[in-house]
């Protein structure tokens, strides 16, 4: 992807967004290169990383 590529996805709930973000992470997407925007959700999450059983 070049710096001007944009992909937009719409999800029905937070669980679907969470699953999509985890898949992007599994595929080695850089977390600094995408944003999640929501409506009606009143918390802020900052993903700092995910750990697997073997990573600790």
Written account of the structure:
The chain is mostly helical and 56 residues long. The protein is built from one helix and no strands. The mean pLDDT is 77. The protein is globular, with a radius of gyration of 13 Å. The N and C termini lie far apart (32 Å).
Provide keyphrases for this structure.
56 residues; mainly alpha
Quick overview of this protein structure:
The protein has 56 residues and is an all-alpha fold. The chain contains one helix and no strands. Helices cover 23% and strands 0% of the residues.
Helix/strand/pairing category: mainly alpha
Radius of gyration equals 13 Å
**Separate helix tally:** 1
Helix content class: 10-25%
Shape: globular
Determine the mean pLDDT: 77
Low-confidence stretches: none
Biggest beta sheet attributes: none
Count the E strands. 0
The CA-CA distance between the termini, in Å, is 32 Å
SSE run: H
How much of the sequence lies in strands comes to under 5%
């Amino acid at each position: 992807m070049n710096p001007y590529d944009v992909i937009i996805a719409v999800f029905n709930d937070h669980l679907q967004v969470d699953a999509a973000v985890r898949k992007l992470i599994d595929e080695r997407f850089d977390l600094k290169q995408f944003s999640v925007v929501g409506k009606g959700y009143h918390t802020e999450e900052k993903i700092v990383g995910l750990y697997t059983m073997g990573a600790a």
